[in-house]
């Protein structure tokens, strides 16, 4: 396992230990931001995914949109995985 993967796993374990339960939002959110910052995905919480690119858009624009879209999915799944089951059911159809 590479050092980067090990660090990510270690930080994610913080979120897994203290799942969001409805009463610990501030602590959970602070830990979430730390993990996302380490993974360079914290922008997903603040930048809205723009409309999908036009077919004639430059490849760099397409790549940027695809990365952002994939990061949204990853962050959404991480957020859901670190909630208790009642909150997961409530938010499973909501994007980050």
The percent range for strand residues is: under 5%
Instruction: Determine the fraction of residues in helical runs and give it as a percent range.
Output: 55-70%
Q: Report the major sheet.
A: none
One letter per element, helices H and strands E, the order comes to HHHH
What is the number of helices?
4
Counting DSSP E segments of at least 2 residues, the number of strands comes to 0
Which structural class should the secondary elements be placed in? mainly alpha
Q: What this model shows, in words?
A:
- The structure is a single chain.
- With 96 residues, the protein is an all-alpha fold.
- It has one domain.
- The chain is 61% helix and 0% strand.
- The chain is elongated, with a radius of gyration of 15 Å.
- The chain starts with a helix and ends in a 5-residue tail after the last helix.
Q: What are the key terms here?
A:
96 residues; 4 helices; elongated; mainly alpha
In short:
By secondary structure, this protein is mainly α.
